[in-house]
Amino acid sequence: MYLEGAVTPGSEDVCVSDEVIELYMKDVDFTLVEENLKLTPEQRLINLMNLQRFAEELRRAGQALG
Fold this sequence. Notes:
By secondary structure, this protein is mainly α. It is built from three helices and no strands. The mean pLDDT is 84.
């Protein structure tokens, strides 16, 4: 998404959204991305389902406290 007045990709000027992306990219741990890509699609889905179960458990625990 480009802001009004921003230049198109590939020109000499840097788009504001590119600067924002670069700020976030410095905090990305690419070793985690690489490890995840070593998994099969099935293994990734299993990990996702486990994460969803954990999130639901945390939600229920939070409701029980509040």
